[in-house]
What we know:
Strand content: 35-45%
Distance between the termini: 130 Å
Oligomer: single chain
Radius of gyration: 54 Å
Amino acid sequence: MAAERGVRRLLSTSSFWLYCLLLLGRRAPGAAAARSGSSPQSPGASIRTFTPFYFLVEPVDTLSVRGSSVILNCSAYSEPSPKIEWKKDGTFLNLVSDDRRQLLPDGSLFISNVVHSKHNKPDEGYYQCVATVESLGTIVSRTAKLTVAGLPRFTSQPEPSSVYAGNNAILNCEVNADLVPFVRWEQNRQPLLLDDRVIKLPSGMLVISNATEGDGGLYRCIVESGGPPKYSDEVELKVLPDPEVTSDLVFLKQPSPLVRVIGQDVVLPCVASGLPTPTIKWMKNEEVLDTESSERLVLLAGGSLEISDVTEDDAGTYFCIADNGNETIEAQAEFTVQAQPEFLKQPTNIYAHESMDIVFECEVTGKPTPTVKWVKNGDMVIPSDYFKIVKEHNLQVLGLVKSDEGFYQCIAENDVGNAQAGAQLIILEHDVAIPTLPPTSLTSATTDHLAPATTGPLPSAPRDVVASLVSTRFIKLTWRTPASDPHGDNLTYSVFYTKEGIARERVENTSRPGEMQVTIQNLMPATVYIFRVMAQNKHGSGESSAPLRVETQPEVQLPGPAPNLRAYAASPTSITVTWETPVSGNGEIQNYKLYYMEKGTDKEQDVDVSSLSYTINGLKKYTEYSFRVVAYNKHGPGVSTPDVAVRTLSDVPSAAPQNLSLEVRNSKSIMIHWQPPAPATQNGQITGYKIRYRKASRKSDVTETLVSGTQLSQLIEGLDRGTEYNFRVAALTINGTGPATDWLSAETFESDLDETRVPEVPSSLHVRPLVTSIVVSWTPPENQNIVVRGYAIGYGIGSPHAQTIKVDYKQRYYTIENLDPSSHYVITLKAFNNVGEGIPLYESAVTRPHTVPDPTPMMPPVGVQASILSHDTIRITWADNSLPKHQKITDSRYYTVRWKTNIPANTKYKNANATTLSYLVTGLKPNTLYEFSVMVTKGRRSSTWSMTAHGTTFELVPTSPPKDVTVVSKEGKPKTIIVNWQPPSEANGKITGYIIYYSTDVNAEIHDWVIEPVVGNRLTHQIQELTLDTPYYFKIQARNSKGMGPMSEAVQFRTPKGSNSPHGSPTSPLDSNMLLVIIVSVGVITIVVVVIIAVFCTRRTTSHQKKKRAACKSVNGSHKYKGNSKDVKPPDLWIHHERLELKPIDKSPDPNPIMTDTPIPRNSQDITPVDNSMDSNIHQRRNSYRGHESEDSMSTLAGRRGMRPKMMMPFDSQPPQPVISAHPIHSLDNPHHHFHSSSLASPARSHLYHPGSPWPIGTSMSLSDRANSTESVRNTPSTDTMPASSSQTCCTDHQDPEGATSSSYLASSQEEDSGQSLPTAHVRPSHPLKSFAVPAIPPPGPPTYDPALPSTPLLSQQALNHHIHSVKTASIGTLGRSRPPMPVVVPSAPEVQETTRMLEDSESSYEPDELTKEMAHLEGLMKDLNAITTA
């Protein structure tokens, strides 16, 4: 009733004047200022101080009724006085023209005659007080809710009822919740007085316990809410006499779930009825509540429970139990306790400079968990790039500007209420130092150097500011010292940066003086930033560098994390993982990579998955694994999901318990000890152990005993004396019993040990002192027949009787803790049993002195540098400022190096320890950017991580082939195909080209495949002029600056079938062969004619010529013959392959940029004649490629399609020149040498000629370089048969300084006129048909050689007296590099003996039979040539 009267007094109109009187007694503002947390700081006259500005009183939630008056209190303190305004539902109130709402002098809001109706509720809502001080800022109060009670409405009314005397009764009266405080009861139209027996519950219900006759009558409830009272129905309550019979026990009112706020009172209703009259008791979470002795717990009438001043510990499930002796019933309800927001840490005032980053800290608690929002000068702070909410509740402001000054408030609210706390931000000029030490709210990146500025010269602008490393989200800047201070050891630097077009600038400071690099983190990809650098010395900040504009790299569109990653155990050895497609796929997802790792290990495994689920088998039983998923698209791996941990299912243990031991206690008991199975074999939670034992004498029955899973020993009693027993133990899980240990035997004593006397003295005692402890160890008494129950250890300073510790009889050592350093302790040890303690054993020890640890914190390593050594190795070096100048490590410190890659984002740090100032990081990926940092550890102290260093490993040859190789036919051109492919997944560098290999035989050696070079990073290429309806096989090889990678698998493609057309149809093989026969026949006939003419010409040698030859022979022992002065031009018998083809050769219009040299053929596969059995339009391509390490000499592709370059010697209309060519010797013994493919490439590289031919057979040869060809000539098997004198001519000889590039053995001696030109070979890429061994031009002199003479290639020689007018040259097609001319070498004359025979033969004339033999040999040659064309 007192509470109701207080409410009515509050509603009276006189409350307004009472409140005004109360204002006179309020504490003065100055006193309130003294309790504010912000004390003004005055470090200097030029520094503004923080202004105390806070609320003295804030509005609170208020309940009112229609027509009454309400006061919402608000008062704020500041100097000068603040201006107070009010907001309702977020909108300012115009109180000037409002006749019902007015502002009181202290700032409170007074509302008279509250208006409230069903459709008009202008006063109900949320109110907030706003205080403003001009030129200072604005603060807002907490939000208060004004609730206006509606018109009274009864949701339930009392009903007539009866009650037996001594029992309980209830009468309902439920109204809308706002009006519950205004409910009262009347009995017989008189106010009902409430007491301990008759109470009103908070809901308005009336409870009458232990009813008497006086409780009978008419009852009604009344609601008085300021207007006319509202009456319920009037009902009668009858009190019946006690029938003295039992009745069922029932609940009249059961407890219901309730929610209250900390500090409130709560009533849990519970009323039961029955005969005999029941008693009520309460339980909370299965614990009986003691309502008699508790001050906060009260049992009300009828059995309801009242809890005063609710705390958070009161929450839980409450059980109401009614018992009348015959039966028991119970009901339960959940009680929830909520808490208003409360600040654990409030924001603090901050001084700062422009461009700095600051953090206002705010920690709150409450239940439910409060939400936090920030307000600046009364306006909501909207999170952006420069205003961020960090660590859930803190406000971070980046790149301060002058307009950021003001008051910031942290407002926390939940369902229960709200609270606010604020702080002031003052931004000082750059030349004014922050007056106090940097508070924790300044970020480390922008903490200013706080040394007070002195007068002096300021540094100039830093020079050469460049962005040395630009990534997607960070930029590394470097610069040089200012010109004003070239050394710059004491300079610090500030890097100011901002987005282009944004006025707000941020700053990052260097970590130590003299450092001239900074890495700016947390940037946005593909964004332009403006940077400038300023240097500071002890006098202040200097000039700013010129703005530097840098754009970050665009970020690759990688997939986002896969959502809804779930894992569940499918069996003891398998786990199924499921996920969904990433929301930000950024393109089609190609596959997923599932990573998993056993908990406690650092070895992560992965598996490629193409679906959205996967089951991993073969896992360890009952082992926890972590899983994560990374999605892959065409750009690479995306963002990893967070780890999900799951444990495989349990199973029976797979191993027995360990370390089973038996201890015989006495004649009837044995103690068993064991240890659990190894953790890897437990396969689940050990729930118990099964002990089995039996007598060992015979196969007796086995006895089983079960113990709990935490028990590791068991005493087996009731055994027989002097009997041997076998024991074994097995572990149990919920899945069953695991394997048991082996049987272990022990025998009980025949008789028990003696315990009629105390134990003897322990046999030994040892002590080991430490700083604050002493380790004591001992051995038991020598007499083992006396029972020892334990040991007593006494110790103290100077006396062993200060403290005593007793330990078990099995223990053999003990550590005495919490001792004083440098103190002398006396220690005693006694064995005891049930009779008493035995004789003590004494020892003394002095604890060690206490060493004070070095309080200096460890400084992180500096100057971290990454030196790239190879494609997978980087050396990390650093310096340690905590070491002496010579940087020698003399203590036990060690360094930890960590590294990771920035792409992909899902990678983790790897760590390694080092004891020197460098570390070699191996096993890295080629051509990958890594970041490194170092920390130092010394004892228990560690430094923070150092500044990061970055390094990119060198490139490596590709380690995987190009992928996705496809071949398609070009539309409209069936002979042209298009090859497409994708770069190798492990390119290990920038791809600079590809090599396409193709062949019709997949099993052919790779050097027999035709090659097509592709320059650059193109991923498609056309190949023309293929044979129709023919299967081809294709392989591709990628290369970068380091070399060639592996080849792809062969891909088969069959060219389509072509249609015959009148134009461009290929010539049949028969026509081609006939044409070749005709051409060769004409050539042979021409040769015969030339031979006949040559024979007659040589017979006309004059005597003058013979004398000249004799003179030469007398000088050098060698001869040269000169032909007739009248030169006869021989026919050009060189067989051009182009003329043998019926269609032009496909020549690329652009030179081959890869072909460099053409190596000398090494085997029979390098020089092969064309196979005319194939269709003549098919070009037989041969691979002459040889791999090299450098790109310049990487390939020796002969021609665009890998055709070997053909060496030809075309002759024009000049006077006849002797053709000199080196030929392999087919055989020195066989009189007939047939020309075929094997003779062209003899492994010994012998020289071929026909013994019956007056000239050697010429052949073309591709040469790799001059040195190699010289070596090949000198190493000919028959070379060593020639004496050294044969290398001289009759005149002074000159040898080619570079060595011979080609040599041709000319059997007949020749003499050249001074006007003749040295013939050379012209070499160029041509048709794949290999050059035939073509007869050379006959010499002008008569043939005088012996056909049986051995042919020996000689070194290049040339007469110096020859005046060379012109030299025909040809350059081997190096496509991009010129090569010097290759003069054809003239061999020197033969030996003296051989020359004599030649002279004798030359002086005799040819007989007709000799001509016949020559013709026979020529016919044999024609047959050989004919065989070539038909082969």
